[in-house]
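Re: [ENG-882] Designed sequences occasionally contain unexpected residues at chain ends

Forwarding the minimal case from QA. Structure tokens:
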């Protein structure tokens, strides 16, 4: 290698080292004075939707007879539900399985569910009272309807963003920075789960269940990071 070639190679290595150091400096500087924090806004909202699941159960040595009994009961239940136009009804979860005792098949067990939903609590409660003469109540839940949830969450998002901005300004002031910019932001929605009512068995005569819808707490959390600027 000639003298000039060695000088040229040395200069290239030096320039490469300078570029690497500069890039490392930029990476380090890009995270300088970066603060991670979150803000939250929540609200208690009255539950405006009621859901119920009722189930017909049966057991028989003859699977065809068992299926006929379940189908007949469900058909009757759907006919009762159609008398309540404000209630949405849908059958679900049909199943018939063999029953064994000491590895010997003793018969068949079957079930089918009926899912009900309505914003008219009294109407649905009256229907449940009618259906309980032949079906068992598996669950009764209350929740906030999707439309109402979206309306409330949109308001909570605005409140949470305002709280995030206020907290960022407070941090900037406390740390003596001249300003800040948002470099990361995530918005998360959530809230309480539906409130279940214990299962009730079928009876010959059943009064409508006494119910209290209560409230659900909806919440929005803004999680992010700001980078302080100093001049």
């Amino acid at each position: 290698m000639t003298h000039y070639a060695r000088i040229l190679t040395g200069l290239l290595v030096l320039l490469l080292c300078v570029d690497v150091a500069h890039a490392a400096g930029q990476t380090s500087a890009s995270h300088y004075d970066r603060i991670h924090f979150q803000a939250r806004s929540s609200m208690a909202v009255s539950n405006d939707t009621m859901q119920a699941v009722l189930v017909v159960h049966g057991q028989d040595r003859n699977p065809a007879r068992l299926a006929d009994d379940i189908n007949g009961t469900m058909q009757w239940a759907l006919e009762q539900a159609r008398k309540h136009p404000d209630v949405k009804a849908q059958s679900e979860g049909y199943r018939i399985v063999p029953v064994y005792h000491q590895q010997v098949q003793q018969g068949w067990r079957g079930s089918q569910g009926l899912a009900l939903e309505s914003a008219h609590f009294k109407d649905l409660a009256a229907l449940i009272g009618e259906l309980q003469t032949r079906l068992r109540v598996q669950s009764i839940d209350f929740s906030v309807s999707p439309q109402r949830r979206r309306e409330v969450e949109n308001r909570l998002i605005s409140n949470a963003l305002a709280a995030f901005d206020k907290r960022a300004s407070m941090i900037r002031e406390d740390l003596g920075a001249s300003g800040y910019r948002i470099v990361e932001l995530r918005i998360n929605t959530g809230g309480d789960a539906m409130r279940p009512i214990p299962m009730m068995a079928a009876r010959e005569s059943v009064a409508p269940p006494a119910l209290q819808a209560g409230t659900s707490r909806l919440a929005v959390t803004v999680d992010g990071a700001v980078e302080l600027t100093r001049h």
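QA comment: On inspection the terminal residues look reasonable. The longest helix spans residues 146-174. Proposing we downgrade this to a documentation issue.
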